Each structure stands twice: as C-alpha cells, then as structure tokens.
Hints:
Layout: H1 6-13, H2 20-23, H3 27-35, H4 51-65, H5 76-79, H6 84-105, H7 109-126, H8 138-157, H9 163-186, H10 188-193, H11 199-203, H12 205-230, E1 236-237, E2 242-243, H13 244-268, H14 278-298, H15 303-314
Antiparallel strand pairs: 1-2
Amino acid sequence: MVSLNPFLQAYRTTRSLKYGGYFITMIPFFAILIYNGFINSPWDLLYILPLVPAFAGGFICNAIGDADKDPKSKNPVTQGAISKKFLIVCIGLLYLLSVEFLVLIYTSKVSLLFLILILVLALVYSNTKWRFKESILGPVVASVGFFVLPSAVLMAEFNYFSLGTVTLLISLFLIYFAHEIKHTIIEYDLDLSFDCKTFAVRTGKTLANIVEYVSLLIGFLFFLLSIYYLLPNSYMIPAYGLPVFYLIMVFVVFFALSMFFTVYYGFTTKFDQKDDVIYNMLPYIAARTCYITIALFLLNLPIIVVLFVIWILFTDKYL
C-alpha cells in the first residue's frame, strides 16, 4: 500500500540528504582554490548546491534499482510505501533543478558536462538494463560519480587542472574505488542471498580484498605526489616553521600503520569480513585525515586549529 505521505518516503530514498561524507572530499579543492587566489568568500560554498539535487536524484535511482534485491527494512520501494512512478517524477525534477542551479552559479561548460556525467552515471549504476552495480565496473562508477566528479565540476569552473589537482583526483579515485570494493565485501552474504552480482560476489572475497589493498596503496602514493606538486619546497608548517617533509613523514607513518592493521585483520579473518570495524576502516580514516589536514595547511591555519578539526573528524561515527 502506497503511503499517504509520498514526499516523506521520497525524502527517505534520498538518504535524508546527509551527503557530508561525500562532499567532504571537495574540501582540499576548495582550499587549493583559496590558496591560489581563485575564491575568497563564504558564498563560494554555493558551488556545492547543484550537487545536492544531483545526489538526491541518484540515490532515488538506486532505491528503484535495488527494490527487488533489498530487504524490506531498508528500502521504501520494497516496502510498497511509495510508487516507482512518483519517484521517477522526483528524479526528473531533481535532475532539472541540479542543472538549473549549475547554469545559474557556474559559467563553465565543462562543469556542466561533468555534472551531466554524474547524472548519467547515477542512472546506469543501478537503475538500467546495464546495471553497473552488478559488474566488475561497479566500484569504478561509484568512485568516479560520488567522489571524483564533484571536485572535477568545481575545478573545471576555474579551469585549474594542475599536476597537483590531477594527482589528487587520481588519489581520490583509487582510495574510494577501494572503499567501494570494501562495501561489496561487507555485504557479500546479503548480495549473494539476493543474487546481486557485485564486485566481491563476482571475484570472491579474497581477490576483492587484494585489489582493495593494492588500490589503497597506489592511491596513497598519488596523494603524496599531489603534496609534492601542491606545496612548494619552501613551504613551512604554520606555527612551527617545519619543512613540509615532516608533514609527509607523519602521513606515511599514519597510513603505513593503518594498512598494517587492515591487512593483518584480513589475514586473521581469512578475508571473510562481515562488518565495518575499526581495523578495516583505518586506511579510510587515515586517508580522510590526510585530505583534510593538507587542506587546512593550504589555508595556513595554526597547528592547534588543525588538530582540533582532526579531533572532530575522529569523533564522527561516519569515519
């Protein structure tokens, strides 16, 4: 039976518009633009606005596409609480709103092209006959659509694709490609029970874990390379006046320890992981911390402010 409050159910399918975990990856790119003098006003945060309805429409697409393979407790469409026809109308309106916002706020045609690509990837990811979610390319599409293209939309507005920004985008892709693989590993049993052939189901958990670890490692190397290009050799850490080399070494140690515990956990569980626990989340905590830290240093903030923001991140359950 369709709910008498379809708008509330539609809101549920958008994951309640809680997209901080996705948009947080744009912070380093905002910092880069500020550092290089492209933006300097709080109003510049409006550049995120077109992405909100784009993501909302994308998650509604996902809810429709997963309706036959989700447990009832997870999906309003599966529950029969809302009709697919109503949600299709919502998707159309949200996509139009996204494009309209971008046309009003942005001037770059390349930004518009990247936004349209986000919208298309959301459609083909789970809600078309191609259904990339159930293929080897699923994590690729998710990483590009959720974590790489939003920042590319922003950088295209200023046509600022330097070696630093490109290597940072590659780093984002590889690390969140690994993150999406981990997601398929954790949900392996559920996906298998619903005959949902995601990355881990197709490759097996062991190979999926190996690909995840390799992608994480290469992604972090690209992150270090981006620091080399983004910060001049003469850059000194604010308040302490230490060379950026020391910052890089802290990142290396932090990430190396996180990878050690994650790989060790993989071996102890025989690569049969069923839940998100601190051990398999550590590299992603490390990566997010590194991204945010480099952004804060680009903004030339005092070390105490940097540490305070990192502390807030560590208290965030999403991490």
